[in-house]
Amino acid sequence: xxxxxxxxxxxxxxxxxxxxxxxxxxxxxxxxxxxxxxxxxxxxxxxxxxxxxxxxxxxxxxxxxxxxxxxxxxxxxxxxxxxxxxxxxxxxxxxxxxxxxxxxxxxxxxxxxxxxxxxxxxxxxxxxxxxxxxxxxxxxxxxxxxxxxxxxxxxxxxxxxxxxxxxxxxxxxxxxxxxxxxxxxxxxxxxxxxxxxxxxxxxxxxxxxxxxxxxxxxxxxxxxxxxxxxxxxxxxxxxxxxxxxxxxxxxxxxxxxxxxxxxxxxxxxxxxxxxxxxxxxxxxxxxxxxxxxxxxxxxxxxxxxxxxxxxxxxxxxxxxxxxxxxxxxxxxxxxxxxxxxxxxxxxxxxxxxxxxxxxxxxxxxxxxxxxxxxxxxxx
Length: 379
Hints:
Layout: E1 2-8, E2 14-23, E3 26-36, H1 39-47, H2 56-78, E4 89-100, E5 110-114, H3 117-124, E6 128-130, H4 133-138, H5 148-155, E7 162-167, E8 170-176, E9 186-192, H6 195-205, H7 214-218, H8 223-230, H9 233-236, H10 250-259, H11 267-289, E10 295-299, H12 306-316, E11 319-322, H13 323-326, H14 333-346, H15 354-357, E12 367-369
Parallel strand pairs: 1-4, 4-6, 7-10, 10-11
Antiparallel strand pairs: 1-2, 2-3, 4-5, 6-12, 7-8, 8-9
Helix pairs in contact: 2-3, 5-14, 6-11, 8-11, 11-12
């Protein structure tokens, strides 16, 4: 079965699309691309992830506009080799607009992802699984992370205790003890990943990210800012836990600028400080909640930040490698995982792990928007 997994995460750089072939428990990556957002769309999306600036009519439009972008990404990942008719299924995580699984501030426990699946189906006629988080949240779970099911299938090793550390906008880990069964693994969000680094890189340098961690290497830590950020309640919170831009957003970052008068410090020092929060939020959660570790595999955009990877190795005192070094496509991991989760849902199999998310039960995830009929379905 050929499946395309689509992911738009907290980094907001574009749509990740992974084309995979699935045969039972064998998952092969055939192609991977990132289709970038335009500057205008990126700005509109960021604005509407901020509670103080969001507009209902724009969110409504973004839902369909993002569906268009998903189709552009599908076209790009298929380019020159495959057609829509070759693809059995699309699995789309969508873009999280708001995530409040604990029902904070008097609100109902809830989560909202946009990127209309009907747009994908209308333009490609490929059956699409979407809206993966909501069923887990409805069952009192965190709704995330959902990739551990795939992590266990593809990367569990009976000889090593492995941590898969993804660093996108938010950092998240999957801990795979060598003797663990699927329902015994641990996974959760560790705190800010690239989200603060990228914000201040754009603010100070007009750049999307800190290439190779060069700015972080040149700076020193601003202690008051560091002490304030590392004491963040989410970082210290016990799992299960998940977070996103509803907590780490432009309003919060600008409040830091005013609170600590960051303009008095060098730009490199600010970048260095927030980069160290990424590193030490990970280190704190490892030391607090994980047991023996033999190997850490870093994936996501943060895997390209040499400062982050090198400092993790120094502070953890264990082998730290990037996904590429380990045989994982650094940027494709989450899109590939959702391709497999879509495959599970379509075949009436559970996709979450209640031991990870805190849900009442393991359950089939997602909504299915049907496209063309495939011979052999529904037998």
